[in-house]
Design brief:
By secondary structure, the chain is of the alpha/beta class. Helices cover 30% and strands 18% of the residues. The chain has helices spanning 21-30, 37-46, 67-83, 153-171, 193-205, 225-237, 246-254, 281-284; strands at residues 6-8, 15-17, 88-93, 97-99, 127-136, 141-147, 177-182, 210-215, 263-269, 289-291, 299-302. The radius of gyration is 21 Å and the shape is globular. The protein starts with 5 loop residues before the first strand and ends in a 14-residue tail after the last strand.
Amino acid sequence: MVQERTGGDPMSEKKWVRASLRQLSRELGEAGHTASPPTVGRLLGKLGFALRANVKSEEAGSKHPDRDTQFTYIAERKAAFLTAGDPVISVDTKKKDLIGNFKNGGQAWGAQPETVNVHDFPSDAQGRAVPYGIYDVAKNQGWVVVGQSADTPEFAVDAVARWWEEEGRARYPEAKRLLILADGGGSNAARSRVWKQQGQAQLADRLGLEVTVCHYPRGCSKYNPVEHRLFSFISLNWAGKPLRSFEAMLGFIRNTTTAAGLKVQAVLNDKVYATGRQVSDAEMQTLNLERHAVCPHWNYTIRPRLAGAQSCQPGS
């Protein structure tokens, strides 16, 4: 009942729900399971929830008139794909980190504290890691592509394509379609033309997939499963441990597990991505992109193009 209402802090195990104890108690009763609000509170406690104090984390998109409609639609689309046995992935870019002898937040058990640089000067770093995470909702499996260049839409789509070629295709050999849950901004932004154009070229045309994308409203990224089911556990695993090399970072990611069976793979991408790429109106007109009737600014499907065919679907 709380699964689709759960949000979390990607830097910790904290999680919360978008419903009150009375509301959950009432819904349980309607489903034939009588439970008072205090009982619901105790059950939530066993699931890792707790009362939280106010923090400065107001959702910028909380007042959007389509916010609740979009959450409901995402839950419906996800359920439909999972029931059909089709892959559902949640994607996002984790916090970028300098690689070198720098302090990493958190604490770790040890006889002596790790000695790190006093200042985090980029000039002292081997580079800046850009970890792009892909969480397989059905399999509870993570895949992280660690880039060393810019966090661009081309990099994001390359990460998804690599996941499909090296992991996804083997897990879902009969699948012809893919559902991607993504934030509303960043390299996989709902308004990004390059994200859509690359999705058409790399995922739909080259891999032959029908790709449906559902974006979370702006400011609601904490409800994206990749945040609280993958990134939070990676952060806990390397808490208090300096990321002195890209190999060390990959090792920490690969060693991230949970009692629920989470397993994570990590690969390095040393390709250099150019920023500021533009996609023209004419090029957008060639995409085989169909916007959904519900929240079309956040939901759309990209299908493979026939050789030489062009679509008249509008882009954004």
